[in-house]
Design brief:
11 strands, 8 helices, alpha+beta, about 20% strand, Phosphorylase Kinase, domain 1, globular, 5-stranded antiparallel beta sheet, about 270 residues, 3-stranded antiparallel beta sheet, Transferase(Phosphotransferase), domain 1
Length: about 270
Amino acid sequence: MSKSVATEVLPERLVEHRAVRAWSQLQPDRVEPTRIEILKLKKIKSAVYRLHGIGPDGGAVIAKRCQVATAEVERMIYQEFLPRVAASVLRCYGFLKESEGDFCWLFLEDAVGEMYSPQLPHHRALAGQWLGTIHLGLARADLKARLPDRGLGYYLGLLRRCRATVREILGGNGTGPGEDTKTLRALEAHCELLESRWSDMESICGVLPPTLVHDDFVIKNVRIQPGPSGPRLLVFDWEFAGWGSPVVDLAQFIYHVVSPDLSAYCSVL
């Protein structure tokens, strides 16, 4: 989860916490958590909590406060899309819209398991097989209208906004020779180079048909969980998911990406 950029004081009686109050409207039989853990808290009102001891089996429940449009996409993925391809999936316990505003609560099974490591070949192979199954099984035209656009035009827009932001910062700070300025100039040049080669990007990405993509397929959003037939991959935080080129989930060894094994991925296509 992202680092918190805001603070919150929990109430003395945890049952009075806003996440617990929302949960009680869906599951009134078990509403007193043993502990509340703040996983993410942002000033723009989104938040994620782990509510200990209130799950159906006495485990933890993840309570996610986010915009309705985001929650609707995640709910569809957990409850409708992933079960279509018999993929390992977290349980979605419910969805509750707040009485005012455009925010809601999404309640999910806690992803308990081993942390994923791209340095472990068997982890990468498992990720490749899982991702190949998802991409192949959900490359269906009927899903396109129900998912946000994650086509190449979306990423070109992000690239241009990034470059515009860099130029705005440079314009405000002058053009001195400081290290920050050098870094920003290099980033601006990199953005320009990428856009100049965008037609090549389109040709490369056009090889595979569009499908459901996670769009934030990084190690913090993945766990390895043991099961009767062997380990399984649990993937969560689908808030950026949409319909687009599968290559966005196939990135290799940059930042904190999952780096799925490409041979394992291709073996199921």
